[in-house]
Design brief:
Length: 107
Amino acid sequence: MGLVARKIEAAGIPTVTLNMIWVYQRAVGMPRVAAIEHPFGRPYGDVGDEETQRAVLHAALEVFDRAEQPGHVAHLPFVWPHDPKQTKWHPAEPSPIIALIQKRRKG
């Protein structure tokens, strides 16, 4: 997503990405990031929770008002409603990009 956002920005259109692994935004050059601490696959909220989904969308769009330049990271104020110990934050098997990051950290 970061590479696409960079290309769109290069065409003169500002972008913002909703991202759960915001610490890597500088590595791939995502121009503006709305960081959220939600599980993978559910960045906008839980299934059927339209209120939270709408609120996250509005908050991500508001990042445009605060982000004066590329490289900006805005941490959204949302907290996952379930106890982290009872939430499946990650799939049983890591995605290819996460597996690669883990491999590079170990090596």
